[in-house]
Amino acid sequence: MRFMKRLLTAVYLYLGIFFALCLICWILTGEEPAALIAGISAAAGVESVIAGCMRMREMQEERRRDQDG
Predict the structure, then answer these.
(1) Where are the beta strands (DSSP E) in the chain?
(2) What residues have CB less than 8 Å from 14, skipping those under 6 apart?
(3) Beta-carbon neighbour count of residue 3 at 10 Å?
């Protein structure tokens, strides 16, 4: 659980910095790396869905333990 929180924090921090740099690049040059942004966004979306599924599974296991004990 602790590892997952660290991983998610690192991923979202990376995304924030990446998008801030893309915004600065767009302001300065007027061009944006659209394909790169789309790829990074898609990868982050998949990661978020997987993390959500893992969290739901953990919550179900906790409920089962509470019901049994």
Answers:
(1) none
(2) none
(3) 7
Q: Do 40 and 18 touch, CB atoms closer than 8 A?
A: yes
d(CA 23, CA 58): 37
| d(C-alpha 14, C-alpha 33), whole Å | 17
pLDDT per residue, tens digit, the chain (69 aa), is 677 778 778 888 888 898 888 888 888 988 888 888 888 888 888 888 888 888 888 889 889 988 886
C-alpha–C-alpha distance, residues 38 and 16, integer Å: 14
Distance CA 22, CA 36 (A): 10
